[in-house]
Design goal:
The complex is a heterodimer of chains A (277) and B (311). Chain A is α/β, with parallel strands linked by helices and 277 residues long. Chain A has a five-stranded parallel sheet, with helices on both faces. Chain A is globular and about 50 Å long. Chain B has two domains: 166 residues, Rossmann fold, CATH 3.40.50; 127 residues, Rossmann fold. Helices cover 41% and strands 18% of the residues of chain B. Classes of the chains: A alpha/beta (277), B alpha/beta (311). The interface between A and B is medium-sized, with 33 and 31 residues. The structure holds thiamine diphosphate (TPP). The site of thiamine diphosphate (TPP) has 21 residues of chain A, from helix 2.
Chain lengths: 277, 311
């Protein structure tokens, strides 16, 4: 049985890998001609930390029963997850350029039946945390020690189902779940504070019975410390509110709602890739 | 005739399944004394999850349990199991094909006094629309027990609709249920009544009185609404030349629509429909409502005569 992450990258390797995933995101979405760059870029560091440092997983055996699970609830960020899976070895990196194309295993939003390593289908926001609870309850029934990670968008937290799930994860005392909120402050049309104010977000999760950790979601030291801390919390679930920048790493996409769901033009992609070298 | 409430039998069947298979888990949404999952909860508290009044969350949790090797049964009233969480069921269960069994109780208008908000009469249309789902409406308690056992043993998402009241037992204990196989309850050459759920017993009553008038009805219990037993429909059409479909559901999207689609494609014959049409019902006693809204043996008999006239 694997006791640790098979990559166990250093901080420098993690930083380089995150840049590589961001480059994949730009290339993939540009080739597809559609997709969601903003929320993929904001989540790149979190996902890199999970796949290349923290999670026990085996790309050669995606169904390995004791693996830690990662559930992408904000399914539109599929490109960055696909990039991480490809770089981990779940499927060849060349597959990435088939994103959103007919007969590709890389659907516009995640599909658990088509992509090796994808735990759950998504695309309709608000559902991933509930699924994670089921996975975590099964771990408890089977006395397994795997951990269930779930990545939520902050706009996604407008959905009522998130709060149904938040209530129940605490009620069931699921200390084997770590939720991470990609708190980039922007949803589809605008800043979350203008569309639907979430604050005080940390106090809301606390009031729902969760252990809350707030970090800079682009600082690997803080990401890793927070993920470690979450593992030590007993009898309640933990949520990491990761403050991030939508479009992170590409100057003209940063903090721009316009790049939530728009592919860059080839010229924009070229500039973006240069910035991500 | 002996009577029993299918949901009561469902609750007891869950307990026996739970004893045989440690992977059976049960979820409910604060209705376990009504859905009868409380029997399971009492015997297997570790494997029972009350999700509170949160049906969307419940379906997601069920999916997560199924993806991790469990066989979840998720229960609530049929109105909530269908309308309240359709998107969750669509994405997490239909599109994934995960092994979740939704057993919804209090279906149809026979739920009675709780009134229109609580009367699920569009649930079959919704669930039949979902690729990969098996949809079953048992006709009595015996068939309920059999269907629940078969569902537990068959991979894939299921929707089983049960009612609230006690209904006549029409099958012997030894009745073997097969998914997608209609059962001929009575032979006849003049017309076929295809019925489901509580309407099967009523179809049998109608056929008895019609026999006295010289009309011989074939009566078919179509308990599996999806996948549909198309062969049974085609042979009914070709051998009896007319079909009446009876169900406790709105006109659109339920058994009637589905039978008509098969028959019109394969073997068009005159058809009549006994259902709730295009209207919601009101509060009242179960028996009063069935009377008021025409879900009776008399209405079936009338429809039979009409269908035969049109042959
Ligand atoms: C239920 C649902 N409603 C609407 C949408 C359309 N939609 C896709 S992404 C999005 C905004 C998501 O914002 P957020 O969760 O903050 O994602 P991020 O900024 O991290 O990309 C919306 C409204 C959807 N996918 N699902």
């Amino acid at each position: 049985m694997l006791q640790a992450n098979i990559f166990n990258y250093s901080l420098t390797d993690l930083e380089e890998t995150a840049r590589k995933l961001r480059r994949h995101v730009i290339t993939m979405i540009t080739a597809a001609g559609s997709g969601h760059p903003g929320g993929s870029l904001s989540a790149a560091d979190i996902i890199t930390a999970l796949y290349f440092k923290v999670m026990r997983h085996n790309p050669k055996d995606p169904q390995w029963q004791d693996r830690d699970r990662f559930i992408l609830s904000k399914g539109h960020a599929a490109p960055v997850l696909y990039a991480a899976l490809a770089e981990s070895g779940y499927f060849p990196v060349e597959e990435l350029k088939t994103l959103r194309k007919l007969d590709s295993c890389l659907q516009g939003h995640t599909d658990r039946n088509l992509t090796p390593g994808v735990e759950m289908s998504a695309g309709s926001l608000g559902m991933g945390l509930s699924f994670a609870i089921g996975v975590a309850l099964a771990a408890r029934l089977d006395t397994k020690t795997y951990r269930t990670y779930v990545l939520l968008g902050d706009g996604e937290c407008d959905e009522g189902q998130i709060w149904e799930a938040a209530l129940s994860a605490a009620h069931f005392k699921l200390d084997n779940i770590t939720a991470i909120i990609d708190r980039n402050g922007i949803q589809l049309t605008d800043w979350t504070r203008n569309v639907m104010n979430l604050e005080p977000l940390s106090q809301k999760w606390q009031a729902f019975g969760w252990h809350v950790i707030e970090i800079d979601g682009h600082d690997f030291r803080q990401i890793l410390t927070a993920l470690e801390e979450a593992m030590t919390i007993k009898t309640r679930p933990a949520v990491i509110i990761a403050h991030t920048t939508k479009g992170k790493g590409v100057s003209f996409m940063e903090n721009k709602a316009a790049f939530h769901g728009k592919a860059p033009t080839p010229e924009e992609a070229e500039r973006a890739l240069k910035e991500l070298e | 005739m002996n009577e029993a409430a299918p949901r009561e039998i469902y609750g007891k069947t869950l307990v026996s399944l739970g004893r045989q298979n440690p992977d059976i888990v049960v979820l409910d949404a604060d209705l376990s004394p009504s859905t009868m999952t409380h029997y399971f909860a009492r015997e297997f508290p570790q494997r029972f999850f009350d999700c509170g009044l949160a049906e969307q969350n419940m379906m997601g949790i069920a999916a997560g349990l199924a993806a991790s090797g469990k066989i979840p049964f998720a229960s609530t009233f049929a109105v909530f199991a269908s309308c309240r969480c359709f998107d969750q069921v669509r994405i997490c269960l239909s599109q994934t094909k995960l092994n979740v069994k939704i057993v919804a109780t209090h279906g149809g208008i026979s739920v009675g006094e709780d009134g229109t908000s609580h009367q699920a009469i569009e649930d079959l249309a919704l669930y039949c629309a979902l690729p990969g789902f098996t949809v079953i409406v048992p006709a009595d308690a015996v068939e309920t027990a059999a269907a629940v056992k078969v569902a537990a043993a068959t991979y894939g998402p299921f929707y089983i609709r049960l009612g609230r009241p006690k209904i006549p037992i029409i099958y012997p204990e030894s009745y073997p249920f097969t998914i997608g196989k209609a059962v001929t309850m009575r032979r006849g050459k003049d017309v076929t009544i295809i019925a489901t759920g509580i309407m099967v017993a009523k179809a049998l009553e109608a056929s008895n009185s019609l026999a006295k008038q010289g009309i011989e009805c074939r009566v078919v219990n179509m308990s599996t609404i999806k996948p549909l037993d198309e062969e049974a429909i085609i042979s009914a059409a070709s051998e009896t030349g007319a079909i009446v479909v009876a169900e406790e559901h709105l006109a659109q999207g339920g058994l009637g629509s589905r039978v008509a689609m098969t028959s019109s494609k394969e073997r068009p014959v005159p058809m009549e429909f006994v259902n709730l049409g295009e209207r919601y019902a009101v509060s009242g006693k179960s028996s009063e409502l069935l009377q008021r809204y025409g879900l009776t043996d008399r209405e079936i008999a009338k429809a039979v005569k009409k269908a035969i006239e049109r042959k």
